Amino acid sequence: MASQILPLELIDRCIGSRLWVIMKNEREFVGTLLGFDDYVNIVLEDVIEYENTAQGQKKTKLAHTLLNGSNIAIASFRL
Amino acid sequence: MTDARAEPPTEVSPPPPPPPVQLTGSPTDFLKGVVGKRVKVRLVSGVDYQGVLSCLDGFMNIALEQTEEHVNGVVTNKYGDAFIRGNNVLYISALEAL
Asked: Any idea where this protein resides (chain A) (predicted)?
């Protein structure tokens, strides 16, 4: 194997860029990644929260936000 | 008896100033910076609590002052002091600059 990347290293490479976070329930966040810890609690800036409900999608803007890692399912780089 | 040859007290240089608190983006630093500020805490259930963050710990247990409970954007309750158990917390968002 040429080189192996640890899972948290993948997130580390996203610091400073936009990150898309999908929660366990019908909720998503997009924001600039400032940092995270071993529990994958995530600190984001300039965040948009998307709540997917039966009535449609609700957007909420947030500034500096700490997401609790226990509800995070997926985190992905986003342009 | 004092010794005439005793040297005058040497000028004591002031202690170096403490290094500025280096805030990286980590969750711990966010929590340090946000204490005393107005915050919005959203629970997993979707209910919001807005108030002044008085203290919190590593479990995200939170003590809020001047708390307002918001359900679907409407204020439904007010508490002087409120304790929120950390397992319910979805996120903590700063309502003012850190």
From this structure: Nucleus
Nearest CB to A68; choose among B30, B90, B98 = B90
The closest of A13, A72, A2, A10 to A42, measured between CA atoms, is: A72
Q: Are A69 and A39 spatial neighbours (Cβ–Cβ below 8 Å)?
A: yes
A33-79 residue pLDDT tens: 999 999 999 999 999 999 998 999 999 999 999 999 999 999 998 87
Q: What is the ipTM of this complex?
A: 0.90
Beta-carbon separation of B40 and A62 below 8 A: yes
pTM assigned to the model = 0.82
